[in-house]
Amino acid sequence: MGRKENKARKEKKAASKPSGKTYTGTLDITRSGMGFVIVENMQKDILVRPSDQNRAFHGDKVKVKVTRERGTRSEGEVLEVLERKQTEFIGTIEVNKDFAFFIADSAKKIPDFYIPTSGFNHAKDGDRVVVKMVGWGKDDKNPKGTVISVLNNKDTNDMAMKELLVENGFPLVFSDDAMEQALRQPDVIGEEEIKARKDMRDILTFTIDPVDARDFDDAISFRKLKTGVYEIGVHIADVSHYLEEDSVLDQEAYERATSVYLPDRVLPMLPERISNELCSLRPHEDKLTFSCIFQITPKGEVKNYWIGRTVIHSNHRFTYEDVQEIIESGKGLYHDEIVLLNGLAQQFRKQRFRSGAINFSSQEVRFKLDEDGKPIGIVVKESKESHQLIEEFMLLANRTVAENVSKYKVNKKVVPFPYRVHDQPDEEKLTPFVAFARKYGHHFDIGSPEGIASSFNNMLVKAHGKPEQHVLEQLGIRTMAKAIYTTENIGHYGLAFEHYCHFTSPIRRYPDILVHRIMAQCIAGSPRADKKLEEKCRHSSERERAAMEAERASNKYKQVEFMKQYLGEEFDAVISGVASFGFWAETIEHKCEGLVSVQSLLDYDDFRHVDTEYALVGRRSGRSFRMGDKVRIKLIAANQAKRQLDYEWVLNVDDNEEAGGKERKSKKSKGKK
Prior knowledge:
Layout: H1 2-15, E1 22-29, E2 35-38, E3 46-48, E4 61-70, E5 73-83, E6 88-95, E7 99-104, E8 113-116, E9 128-135, E10 144-150, H2 156-167, H3 176-184, H4 191-195, E11 198-199, E12 205-209, E13 218-224, E14 230-237, H5 239-242, H6 248-256, E15 260-262, E16 265-267, H7 272-278, E17 286-296, E18 302-313, E19 316-319, H8 320-329, H9 335-354, E20 364-369, E21 375-381, H10 385-405, E22 409-410, E23 413-414, E24 419-421, H11 427-438, H12 449-463, H13 469-479, E25 484-486, H14 510-524, H15 533-563, E26 570-579, E27 582-587, E28 593-597, E29 607-610, E30 615-618, E31 624-626, E32 630-639, E33 644-652, H16 657-672
Parallel strand pairs: 3-5, 11-18, 12-19, 28-33
Antiparallel strand pairs: 1-2, 1-4, 2-3, 4-5, 6-7, 6-9, 7-8, 9-10, 12-13, 13-14, 14-17, 15-16, 17-18, 20-21, 22-23, 24-25, 26-27, 26-32, 27-28, 29-30, 30-31, 32-33
Helix pairs in contact: 2-15, 3-6, 9-10, 11-13, 12-13
């Protein structure tokens, strides 16, 4: 017996011996406090117990050392926090005489923060506050923080929006140093700076933006040359001129990496002094820009282009609505130029689709808000020719810059560059979709990426205006990979571009600033190899995803807030998703999505989820709830805190009136019982 125990002990010791390997990954902390470090391209996460997390918080990028290996499971300890996901937190302050503790609102375990009196910022005991983590010394038991704002408990909307931003790792304010750097920038452009640039101030130039925009980061110039060719300039705010590399302001812009657009506010990537004043291409003001100037024939052929720094003077600020009216009526300010530019844009658009770009369209909603930020209406945004005019010229500039930089070399290698890439569709997602589309008569050529793209476009054309259009578009989009930033150029599948980058929105996207800097180095003949560029690309992609998550959650919050007034009312809807626990339905009028629980359907049948059908199917009746089906639903609950709408099924809209009447009666009688 003793030998067996000794042998087992030796085997266990051998199986759990430390490996000592170190990895970099993201720490995911469960509600229980147990952590798992997710390492890219590693099948199993590394388990990290609470005692070994070494002051790392949920979502932090960490260096982890494997201390024990048990079979396929590795255990480790955090050696170092490389990057904090979140430095600002929302919670409650408990004030004592000479210090305070801050208790964060978080489903994940976070230690209380120590707040010295100098960091109270007028907060009182019990206040809801935003606290910034300022340090955690080796000898300190708790992290140290300072209050950056006291929240108004009466303004629940403001608190909810700030919480979403903070949860996703976006600082609510800029540091004093960053603000000072922004304010120090001079208002007047010096003559020396103007002389160093191509002067475009005498050429007709205008901006086209949403009606509520304040940061105009792109402008279009137009003139006809004596040769009959059009000279069209795409002028982009020269943010990199005002943003000194590695300065405090630059570092804080990088940490954010993107502006975040919520229904009632914008959290800018840069202070308003930069984004809305110095860099915004406002009319009747001289502005510094980075430009792509094209020579284009009346047939839409790009004969030549020039890239460089310019100074412009916008003649007019248009809204999309202004331009759409000019396109449709042929009348208005600069109507000849706008109609001509629109004609060229439509030629570019057709050529893109002929080359294999996929013509997906997705509906977006915009909220009409009252003065308190409360939603009083929902408007579905449409992509019209005025939007496409700007989109096509921005795509042309982005593609041209990426193509241009790809020709430069440093140390006999292509210059490292932040490409915007989009991979081919995921095969696992594509296979069931192809089978589903076949049921509607759409056949796919999956023999090549070009064949898949062509099949998608043929399907979208044939399905247009038919009942299945929406579901095929939505499911088709879900088969697609996500676009990311990377130095490895695999092309952009959805746009059918071999080279593509983001150059046209540096006020709101940090990768565009990186592109401007590298482009400037290439033009000057001194390109550099940034060894940390891939890391910056990954960070920018992650921040983009976090911004999208905050934007989705804020839209959902506003939808729930808007729909609360309709509790108990019925709506026509479309099934927008299906799972084993129920189906999601989106109201046709307001585009507000909620869940119909499978539990609420038990009176009718026992429903099972059929993956390949994107449907719930009744075991006895055969009745199905399939993605794209039209249904009549009733709103039974609206929970703002959870950002959740609950619906109840009333009937399928496609059922005949007699069957629908029976279902209504049956449901009502069951309700009475």
